[in-house]
């Protein structure tokens, strides 16, 4: 049975003296996961920029003047070639991102379904993040072989409309429900470093912790402050805040993969090592996130060697019968 945490309890965890917090989180990590095993996901922006939403952190929103160049939906062949590269580099999951508000039932969606089928047939877990989806669309994605759907709640319910005004927190939760009903695994997390309070960070973790089942994967992103977006001048996130967020997530979401996501380029190897110790067991690897740079793949593999980490195999969390189906 997973415990229903209160906001007060989560805040108390978050404010525990740092090394004690890391040590508690490491204990939970050992109890529920193979320590040293880290899931490596590759990210690919299949449709870039020109998005109608106003997410203040996002360089792909059409209304902000950023350096992102709009690119229409990639072809299935192009995406297939990228998946081959990701697989030979050692990734076990490929996440396809589209700068859409929501999925529409049109030729582009059919193309995405083809991409999912193609990548799945290569033995990679496929994840997609395409904006809001209906239950019917989520089912079609599941039938095509999608493994996970990423849909972040991004911040607390209270802070949501300070960051995004073109949709609501409820809309986000609605899509997560649709994804669950379709039998997909859920990947949902958020961003720190947007000027939110510690209570907002706790509020976000609180909402995620109360989802049943809890999300299989929770990405914790540090804001990548991009010129031209309303959050361009936010100061960088102190590494200690990232460690606290990850450790707290690990304790209240014991079975979840906690992903040390955007922002790693500004973190030292020592800082990342503390995050892994505090329970992070997933990263995005590859030279680019969606539109912003990420550490070089070879440097990440060097870090894995130094820290004694190994990439997790695809479908390691699925029963064998399902893999063979
Ligand atoms: N359009 C879809 C949506 O919003 O769900 C999918 C793509 S969107 C880029 C996916 C997630 O990327 C966002 O929910 C946000 O958490 C993260 N993200 C976007 N821009 C970011 C930034 N500058 N720094 C950190 N994370 C960011
Ligand atoms: C998530 O939580 N982080 C990823 C992924 N899910 C789609 C995206 C990070 C984007 C960072 C900004 C960019 O590169 O455009
Ligand atoms: Fe669009 Fe997603 Fe960026 Fe928001 S986060 S502007 S929905 S691409």
Question: Would you spell out the secondary-structure blueprint of this structure?
Answer:
Elements: H1 7-14, H2 18-32, E1 37-47, H3 76-88, E2 93-98, H4 107-120, E3 125-129, H5 135-143, E4 148-150, H6 160-163, H7 169-181, E5 185-187, E6 190-192, H8 198-210, E7 217-222, H9 239-252, E8 257-260, H10 269-277, E9 280-285, H11 297-307, E10 310-311, H12 320-324
Parallel strand pairs: 1-2, 1-9, 1-10, 2-3, 3-4, 4-5, 6-7, 7-8, 8-9
Helix pairs in contact: 1-8, 2-9, 3-4, 5-7, 9-10
Bound molecules: S-adenosylmethionine, 6-(5-methyl-2-OXO-imidazolidin-4-yl)-hexanoic acid and iron/sulfur cluster.
Iron/sulfur cluster (SF4) binds next to loops.
Q: Domain count, please report it.
A: 1
Order of helices and strands: HHEHEHEHEHHEEHEHEHEHEH
| Overall geometry | globular
CATH fold-level assignment? TIM Barrel
Regions with little confidence, pLDDT below 50 for 5+ residues: 319-325
- Percent range for β-strand residues: 15-25%
Ligand list:
S-adenosylmethionine, 6-(5-methyl-2-OXO-imidazolidin-4-yl)-hexanoic acid, iron/sulfur cluster
C-alpha Rg (nearest Å): 18 Å
**CATH class wording:** Alpha Beta
CATH architecture: Alpha-Beta Barrel
